[in-house]
Amino acid sequence: MRVSIITKARSCFLVLRRCHWAVLVPVCMALLVSIRCTNHRLEYAHELLEAGNFLSARKIYSKIVEKDPENFEAHYGMGMSLCAEAMYKMNLDIGCIEDWYPAIYHMNIASNLQPNTREVSRTLAILHYNLGTCHHKEGNADAAIERLESAVVYDSTLVKAYNLLGALYHTRENFRKAEQCYLKVLDVQPEYAMAHFNLGAVAWASGDYNAAVSYFQKASELSPGNTYFKQWLHKAQQQSRQG
Fold first, then answer.
1. Is 70 exposed, middle or buried (0-12, 13-18, 19+ CB in 10 A)?
2. Would you list the DSSP string of 46-76?
3. For 23, how many CA atoms within 13 A lie in the half-sphere containing its CB?
4. How far is CA 132 from CA 1, 72, 88, 127, 167, in A?
5. pLDDT at residue 17, rounded to an integer
6. Which of 157, 158, 134, 155 is nearest to 144 (CA)?
7. Tens-digit pLDDT profile for residues 196-242
């Protein structure tokens, strides 16, 4: 468990109580100034990050981590700033898979320092999801599935991760796992039309045309203007009658 800066300060005070007062005062004052400066620098880095200046924020976080390797906020800030940079590069189409690993590294440290912190878990989920999509774009389905599975462990409500996982399992004809992923989506968002359609596609591929009709019908009801859904509903109805 991470020992906070304040806790460290208290420990120092207990040791220094035995020292001569003339020595104690300057040391304590220097420690208090150090604590105040660190907090101020963290606050400034947070402000820079919120303003979108992730490069300047990262420099500050990095210096704090160098001096205090167990600083939760600094590691979390590093992870967030690196995540922002990776997303910026991705939007400019100049990013690469390696951009996501440093962010995951610092966020993992933050997670170890303060386990079960919801914000950290949700951020790790997004990081693993983004890395999974990068692997998917490069055609590495195994690596994509591994990262997406990690994403939903960190955040069981991450619909887009379940959706992509379902599509990847469907492509591999692992219809049982694909169905499980899409049902997870509906657990979170019952009215999500695409998940109903995807379940219909799984049922269709499995040869269960009656189930496909039901899912396609629901998808069409939830998204009445989607002609693609209606086309597949019509196909499933035809197959169901023939069967």
1. middle
2. HHHHHTT-HHHHHHHHHHHHHH-TT-HHHHH
3. 7
4. 30, 26, 17, 8, 13
5. 39
6. 134
7. 999 999 999 999 999 999 999 999 999 999 999 999 999 999 998 88
